[in-house]
Design a protein that fits this description.
Blueprint (H helix, E strand, L loop, with lengths): L2 H7 L12 E4 L7 H5 L1 H6 L4 E4 L4 H6 L19 H8 L1 H8 L9 H17 L3 H6 L1
Helix pairs in contact: 5-6
Length: 134
Amino acid sequence: MSYGFLRCFAPRNARKGFIDTLIIFDEVQECPEELNALKYFKEKANEYHVIAAGSLLGTLLAKPKSYPVGMVNLLDIFPMTFEEFLEATDAPLFAYYEDIHKEQQIEEIFHNRLLGAYNNYLIIGGMPECVFLG
């Protein structure tokens, strides 16, 4: 992706009123120039909402060549922990889980329910949107 691509992506003749349009650029750390090129949307195509995301974006931001100062809001997002997942999906089981002591024997029925919840957590990955929609 290049600055030219970004210019073509949001043409000058685009209709106004795209307040509900969201453009997501994922894994932007793969092309460091693009973070700075995204300022185009702020300056020339402000009707679009833009998100630049990346699993290793922090490493890019730690040593940027150029940075669109004043145009970037940073948000660190993390998956839910198993405890948060359990509390959101099965409050009674979470209450039991919280009361377990280190050397306590766990009844088989609760052990199986906890294993099932943990397997679901591994499948879903702790992403809040998936947890709350499930």
